[in-house]
Design a protein that fits this description.
Blueprint (H helix, E strand, L loop, with lengths): L4 E9 L1 H4 L1 E2 L4 E2 L3 H11 L3 E9 L5 H12 L12 E5 L2 H5 L4 H17 L3 E5 L10 H17 L5 E4 L1 H4 L7 H7 L8 H25 L36 H4 L1
Parallel strand pairs: 1-4, 1-5, 5-6, 6-7
Antiparallel strand pairs: 2-3
Length: 252
């Protein structure tokens, strides 16, 4: 029997990847819902998801070194990740790092898995439910997200998380259900992220499968395979035509 295909996914980022909620008393990473969706979509595969989210970390000062630890020098027998999902920039924007600077560092982070033949799914930065200074923050976030969406490289893909989970466009009840403090999400909110990201990744994997279908086992051909025997033609209801079935008990 053929070995089951494996799918390993790394979810990398800051507190939004870690699933930070309730001031750090609860952690519910979106990876959990993502893995469930992948298992439902591909029951014939062995799915493994890993989250590396560090609250407070920034793209500019911490992401590169951490990503390198997830992709150490390859050793014989090591299993790498097939996909790496990257979400980062929220803390950098809060520290007033320029969008162009954040984007430049994100490219360095993305390049690490790409060089190891891991496909990258970059997520745009979701908006924060904070009114104070919203116009200026939105402009900087939108600039960063446009840079992310415009990036092109082999193996690189983007999912617009910002558009999928908009804070201010949601109803008051949905804001209370999905957001914890205006920046972080509730467990239900992280499940929503996992669902949205999961649907995007499933589509990409289905497209990948369609482009690279598994090889079919070649049928062994024997002499006279296409020959039609006399017993195979005629009227099957007639006793002098077709096959005759004899039961063992009739011979006794």
């Amino acid at each position: 029997m053929a070995a089951r295909q494996k799918l390993r996914v790394l979810c990398f980022g800051d507190s939004l990847t870690a699933g930070y909620a309730s001031m750090g008393c609860v952690y519910h990473p979106y990876r959990l819902k993502l893995e469930h969706m992948l298992e439902m979509a591909f029951p014939d595969m062995d799915i493994e998801t890993v989250d590396d989210g560090r609250p407070g970390d920034t793209v500019k000062f911490g992401f590169l070194k951490r990503m390198q630890t997830n992709y150490p020098p390859r050793k014989k027998g090591d299993e790498s990740y097939n996909w790496t999902i990257v979400l980062g920039g929220t803390n950098d924007l809060a520290l007033r790092v320029k969008p162009e600077d954040i984007f430049a560092h994100l490219q360095e982070v993305w390049d690490i898995p790409l060089r190891r033949k891991s496909k990258v799914l970059a997520l745009t930065v979701p908006e924060a439910g904070i009114e104070n200074g919203r116009e200026r923050m939105d402009a900087r976030r939108n600039k960063l997200n446009e840079l992310i969406k415009g990036y092109k490289k082999e193996g690189f893909h983007v999912f617009d998380l910002n558009a999928a989970v908009p804070f201010f466009a949601m109803s008051k009840s949905d804001q209370e259900a999905f957001w914890d403090d205006g920046v972080h999400f509730t467990p239900d909110g992280y499940n929503l992220i996992g669902k949205e990201v999961g649907m995007s990744l499933v589509k990409l994997l289905e497209k990948e499968r369609a482009a690279n279908p598994p090889p079919t086992k070649k049928r062994r051909v024997f002499r006279d395979d296409d020959k039609v025997f006399e017993e195979e033609v005629g009227d099957p209801t007639s006793l002098d035509q077709g096959y005759v079935v004899v039961r063992r008990k009739d011979l006794n």
